[in-house]
């Protein structure tokens, strides 16, 4: 495939990749489902050299948040993000720090008394940016009725607003994420359900076995992620025939490339497009 010749595309075992893709092609649309992360996977890591915001960053940077709160949120990011991507720590070692980070930042957001009806405006004024080729990706899946499970450790309300404003929140899309809880006046008072962070997606996947059971015939999976924690997103799927794992490696490339190549079938290094997933869909659908 031509797209595989791009210099951003890396894989350890090309024959294995070819074998999986052949299995996906054979199964066609009827057997396919997509399981994907959102921040830095469907959304860009950077645009023209400038970092793009995650769902959390969009709220952190918005004008509804006080300057003092923004400083505290930035301090938290400066403390915990290096831990999240530290190649020398195991996922188990990172786990408690991620819980701490989310708990502290969510507490700060609750103190801000964010209003639900301001979310569309907050997203519109943000630098939210989906990867190039996103329309084709979402539309093609919808056209062929391929279920798409977006599993995000971000903020679900912001995520849904981003894809709604981009015109791609189609009926085949299911979002599982951290959703805000608002009081009767539409003011943020907490978060629903259990926290989803970068490294507990295994547990979250198992909680969604009902969704996956309904899709028992969709036994071919394309999984898209940007962190090693995303590899567990398909753990709730009961009967997998073929799974193709595509990883976006956006940061700390030299230190992490080897680990990513051991874990993902295809690794896309500093690639801000969905060209490779789109070209694979082109073959299957």
Written description of the protein model:
The chain has eleven helices and eleven strands. It has helices at 14-31, 55-60, 67-84, 91-111, 119-124, 134-143, 156-165, 201-207, 209-214, 253-263, 275-284, and strands at 9-10, 32-36, 46-47, 50-51, 148-155, 173-178, 180-182, 188-191, 220-225, 242-249, 266-269. Strands 1-11-10-9-2-5-6 form a seven-stranded mixed sheet. A hairpin with a 2-residue loop joins strand 3 (46-47) and strand 4. Helix 3 (67-84) runs antiparallel to helix 4 (91-111). It starts with 8 loop residues before the first strand and ends with a helix. 40% of the residues are buried. The model has no long low-confidence stretch (mean pLDDT 96).
Provide the descriptors you would attach to this structure in a database record.
single chain, 285 residues, two-stranded antiparallel sheet, 11 helices, 18% strand, globular
Explain the layout of strands and helices.
Blueprint: E1 9-10, H1 14-31, E2 32-36, E3 46-47, E4 50-51, H2 55-60, H3 67-84, H4 91-111, H5 119-124, H6 134-143, E5 148-155, H7 156-165, E6 173-178, E7 180-182, E8 188-191, H8 201-207, H9 209-214, E9 220-225, E10 242-249, H10 253-263, E11 266-269, H11 275-284
Parallel strand pairs: 2-5, 2-9, 5-6, 9-10, 10-11
Antiparallel strand pairs: 1-11, 3-4, 7-8
Helix pairs in contact: 3-4
């Amino acid at each position: 495939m031509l797209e595989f010749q791009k210099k951003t595309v890396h894989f350890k075992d090309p024959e294995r990749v070819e074998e999986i893709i052949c299995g996906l092609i054979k199964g066609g649309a009827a057997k396919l489902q997509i399981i994907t992360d959102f921040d830095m996977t469907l959304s860009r890591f950077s645009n023209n050299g400038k970092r793009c915001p995650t769902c959390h960053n969009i709220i952190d940077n918005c004008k509804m948040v006080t300057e003092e709160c923004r400083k505290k949120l930035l301090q938290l990011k400066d403390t915990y993000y290096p831990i999240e991507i530290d190649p020398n720590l195991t996922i188990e070692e990172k786990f408690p720090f991620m819980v701490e980070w989310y708990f502290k930042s969510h507490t700060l957001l609750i103190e801000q008394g964010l209003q639900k009806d301001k979310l569309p405006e907050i997203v519109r004024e943000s630098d939210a940016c989906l990867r190039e080729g996103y329309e084709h990706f979402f539309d093609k899946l919808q056209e062929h009725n391929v279920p798409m499970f977006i599993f995000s450790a971000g903020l679900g309300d912001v995520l849904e607003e981003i894809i709604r404003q981009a015109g791609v929140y189609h009926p085949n899309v299911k979002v599982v994420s951290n959703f805000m809880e608002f009081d009767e006046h539409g003011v943020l008072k907490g978060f629903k359900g259990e926290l989803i962070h970068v490294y507990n997606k295994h547990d979250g996947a198992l909680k969604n076995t009902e969704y996956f059971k309904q899709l028992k015939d969709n036994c071919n999976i394309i999984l898209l992620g940007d962190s090693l924690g995303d590899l567990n997103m398909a753990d709730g799927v009961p009967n997998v025939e073929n799974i193709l794992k595509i990883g976006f490696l956006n940061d700390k490339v030299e230190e992490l490339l080897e680990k990513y190549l051991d874990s993902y079938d295809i690794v896309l290094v500093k690639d801000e497009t969905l060209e490779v997933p789109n070209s694979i869909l082109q073959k299957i659908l």
